[in-house]
Amino acid sequence: MNRITIDCVSARNKVSGLYQVCMNLGNALLQQADPAREAFTFFVHKKLPDLFGPNQRYIIQKETHRFFQGALQDCDVWHSTIQDAKIKPRNRRIKVVLTIHDLNFLIQRKDEPFKIKKYLGRVQANINRADHIVCISEFTRQTVLQNLKTYGKPVDLIYNGSTIKEFPGYDTPVYRPFRPFIFGLGALVPKKNFHVLPCLLQHNEYELVVAGTRHEEYVAQIMKEAALYGVADRVHLTGEISEKDKYWYYKNCTAFAFPSLAEGFGLPLIEAMYFGKPAFIAANTSLPEIGGDLAYSFNHFDPQYMQSVFEKGMLHYEQTKPMQVIRERALRFSWDQAAIDYLSIYRHLNKH
């Protein structure tokens, strides 16, 4: 029996991307595993002590686990599901899989070399302990190989999946646009770059709806840009939304916009493509890899250029009607396939 512990401590905020990753991967692993071969334990935050239901085995994180790891030793494979996981087993008998989502701090902290060195050191320490490394995009994989020492260890690519909860009868979103609208999803922080979007509302009647955790300083920057273009009355920042609201906005938006400057994967992009929507993205980090030639890219953020890309992209979408092809690309990103790939790694490690 291969005893596997999955570190899900980072999945403590239900609106975070890491929560979605841990929940979906964990559920897929439970579905795809062979009960005669694998037994899972989930290392979880105290806020979510039964993350996968009452019938699973859990270890609830304690501060003392940094020093006393007796309860953490009862496994053959430990999966650290985030690159800067604070707890990793000291017992070298236990094989460690490390998933690296991104090294976004290289972009976000580019003017702070001491912080970059500090953050790289944290990830390097986890790589040093790992036996097998997984990256969630080829962009992330190449970034890791260029900036960290992997010592010949396997560095594999396993894409995240996408699971869309559908609510066909739902029709009461937190805000209902009065006009056709562009939708964006993500925390309202500078790296998401949402402040470049209000210019897209000039010379048309679209609304812009952006959903995600509000950080008021950046909210003010977005609304300042909206006022500059005279479109503040058509920009709506909803804050965090429910799964039902997310479904409604994806289903009913005219277009999706995701101009993020730093992504390791880009889950909202896949979610929008699942609904066959035209997606407008920043042409950097992982987004072109995930969207492929079915997404429309901003190579830079000059307002007139962005308006041109948007107008031409919408015209192309209306003329070619690629909804089904876009949806098919989204369906390629499967949590079941990710689980199968991780299970292959767990099984291989337990043989050695």
How does this model look, in words?
- The protein has eleven helices and 13 strands.
- With 352 residues, it is α/β, with parallel strands linked by helices.
- The protein folds into two domains: 2-161 and 334-350, Glycogen Phosphorylase B (Rossmann fold, 3-Layer(aba) Sandwich); 181-331, Glycogen Phosphorylase B (Rossmann fold, 3-Layer(aba) Sandwich).
- The strands form two sheets. The protein has a seven-stranded parallel beta sheet, with helices on both faces. It has a six-stranded parallel beta sheet with strand order 10-9-8-11-12-13, with helices on both faces.
- α7 (267-274) packs across α10 (323-331).
Please outline the helices and strands.
Blueprint: E1 2-7, H1 17-32, E2 38-44, E3 57-60, E4 77-80, E5 95-100, H2 105-108, H3 113-129, E6 132-135, H4 138-147, E7 155-157, E8 181-185, E9 207-211, H5 216-228, E10 235-239, H6 243-252, E11 255-258, H7 267-274, E12 279-282, H8 287-291, E13 296-298, H9 303-320, H10 323-331, H11 335-350
Parallel strand pairs: 1-2, 1-4, 2-3, 4-5, 5-6, 6-7, 8-9, 8-11, 9-10, 11-12, 12-13
Strand content: 15-25%
Question: SSE string, helix = H, strand = E?
Answer: EHEEEEHHEHEEEHEHEHEHEHHH
Classified in CATH, the superfamily of the largest domain is: Glycogen Phosphorylase B
Count of discrete structural domains: 2
Tally of helical segments: 11
Structural class: alpha/beta
Helix content: 25-40%
- Tell me how many strands there are: 13
CATH architecture of the largest domain: 3-Layer(aba) Sandwich
Identify the strand order in the major beta sheet: 3-2-1-4-5-6-7
Let me know the largest β-sheet.
7 strands, parallel
Rg, please? 21 Å
Q: What is the mean predicted local confidence, pLDDT?
A: 94
CATH class of the largest domain: Alpha Beta
Domain Glycosyltransferase subfamily 4-like N-terminal: 86-161
Protein name: Glycosyl transferase group 1
Keywords: Transferase
Pfam family, one: Glycos_transf_1
